[in-house]
Amino acid sequence: MKTTIALTAAAALAAKVSAACWSQSLGYSCCTNASTPVVYSDNDGDWGVENGNWCGIPVPETCWAEKLGYSCCTSTSQVVYTDGDGNWGVENGNWCGITTGSTPGPSPSPNPDPTPDNTQYKISGNPFSGVEFYLNPYYVEEVENAIKQMTSSSLKAKAEKMKTYSNAIWLDNIKNMQSWLEPNLKGALSQHQSTGKDVLTVFVVYDLPGRDCHALASNGELLANDSDAQRYKTEYIDVIESHLKKYTAQPVVLIIEPDSLANMVTNIENTPACAESETYYYDGHAYLLKKFGVLDHVAMYLDIGHAFWLGWDDNREKATKVYKKVIDSGSPGKVRGFVDNVANYTPWEDPTLSRGPDTEWNPCPDEKRYLEAMYKDFTSAGIKSVYFVSDSSRNGHKTDRKHPGEWCNQTGVGIGARPQASPISGMSYLDAFYWIKPLGESDGTSDESAARFDGYCGHDTAMKPAPEAGQWFQKHFEQGLENANPPL
Ligand SMILES: *[C@@H]1O[C@H](CO)[C@@H](O)[C@H](O)[C@H]1NC(C)=O
Ligand SMILES: *[C@@H]1O[C@H](CO)[C@@H](O)[C@H](O)[C@H]1NC(C)=O
Ligand SMILES: CC(=O)N[C@H]1CO[C@H](CO)[C@@H](O)[C@@H]1O
Q1: Site to substitute for ligand 1 among 30, 33, 103, most atoms within 8 A of C-beta
Q2: C-alpha–C-alpha distance, residues 447 and 456, integer Å
Q3: Domain 64-97 classified CATH 3.40.1280.10?
């Protein structure tokens, strides 16, 4: 019976080798029950019989994602993103390919590939203004998983709202950059094509050689040496540049290397690792500023730590020199401004504090006063473009910390102001409040035996047990929702 068509079908079959339902192209339907007994086998595959007709027994689809350097999903079939390669899900913080397994037929495509768009978006002024913020499907999925672990309906309702707010996407190693950058640039273009609005995506560039020289919880993959510095340029910055040049129709904000320059201001003398990283930090900044700073649809903000890091007079004075030098070194690349309080807990306003013994004589005991002072210092030093983005992802509620320098998994955390452009009237240099560090992703592990354990994560006011930096931390997330200010 089937030998007659086997040859003509071979070509069609070759073109569809990965299809789970291989018999359709031969004119036979697929067995609806993949465990149906094998009645006959030939070069095409195994045949069964259902309702008196031959049917092809579906084979488990090969893991198509493997060829692209990803694994296939083992525990999820929820589609987070779809492109020409197939449907993608997320497992343990990485993209995974969803195989159709024994379910024949194409899956619905919730987020089709965008039509390529070569127009050039031009940022003029505040990049957060007049645009829609991109929603990261990966974070939405993390929140959905978090909701499944919740019992309180009021908490679930708050978590549902979290799915409507935007977060920055961290490109915190070469592999994550490859996984997160292009799919989300595409996603933003799709969002634009379905809403007609300009869609802003915010990425965090975070992989300098010798990264986070003063803390252990966020040490990076590249060491402070010449060959790793070269990898930073060619395997990280150059690749980011090539993707940005491909997706020019939508605005992009880049948050540049959190903590790095603040470490150059305060930790060169006391931390050998920071002294060793110095050349690479400066060189890395000059390199990336020249590349990204000339792209019309890209705006950059350099990280300036937070009020209880650089707020003191002497630190601000040193900082002004460091940032001026870095910006000059990146010419002709342009910098829009600065970002403060990334992944940190310092309240936006704290009227209970003023310069005195309680603040160790810091004249800037909250982020608002810090930015006011930095604005004055930077503009008087001749820095041309001085605008700020303030991370409000975990500073809504004053945490339990006894000392304002505590940063790890603080108890009493509350999500702060919602992401929004120009939030404070009379402060035209504040471009936005934005959630740079997604609430729920850990600051660092509290496991003292872990390689990246940092003493701060074991302190009294740090939540324990805490998972590794970047991993989901349910308790921290739930507390952030309960203490949200303004309330969710
Ligand atoms: C599929 O076939 C197997 C083997 O005949 C049988 O045990 C099983 O119950 C069938 N499943 C369904 C859903 O019909
Ligand atoms: C730099 O560090 C990397 C480890 O990240 C190592 O493989 C490489 O050999 C080092 N290069 C030099 C020149 O020391
Ligand atoms: C909310 C939470 O986990 N709090 C803990 C923080 O750490 C202290 C000291 O280890 C514990 O006593 C708290 O229960």
Answers
A1: 33
A2: 11
A3: no
The amino acid at residue 97 is G
pTM of the predicted model as reported, rounded to 2 decimal places: 0.75
Query: Which ligand is closest in space to the CA of residue 479?
Result: 3
Q: Which two tokens stand for residue 111?
A: 């987020």
DSSP classification of residue 410: B
pLDDT in tens, 201-236: 999 999 999 998 997 666 789 999 999 999 999 999
Q: What are the residue numbers of the active site?
A: 259, 443
Long-range contacts from 65-74, C-beta under 8 angstroms, 24+ separation: 65/95, 65/96, 65/97, 66/97, 68/97, 69/178, 70/94, 70/95, 70/96, 70/97, 70/179, 71/96, 71/97, 72/96, 72/97, 72/98, 72/99, 73/97, 73/98, 73/99
Which residues belong to CATH 3.20.20.40 in the chain?
A: 132-483
Superfamily name and number for 132-483: 1, 4-beta cellobiohydrolase (3.20.20.40)
What six digits make up the tokens of 105? 């037929």
- The helix (H) or strand (E) run that includes residue 279 is helix 272-292
Nearest CA to ligand 2 atom 9: 227
Residue 106 has pLDDT above 50, yes or no: no
Of the ligands numbered here, which is closest to the C-alpha atom of 399? 3
- Range(s) for CATH 3.90.1220.10 in the chain? 22-56, 64-97
Q: Where are the beta strands (DSSP E) in 369-442?
A: 387-391, 420-421, 430-434
Q: How far is Cα 335 from Cα 337, in angstroms, rounded to an integer? A: 6
Architecture, CATH, for domain 22-56 = Alpha-Beta Complex (3.90)
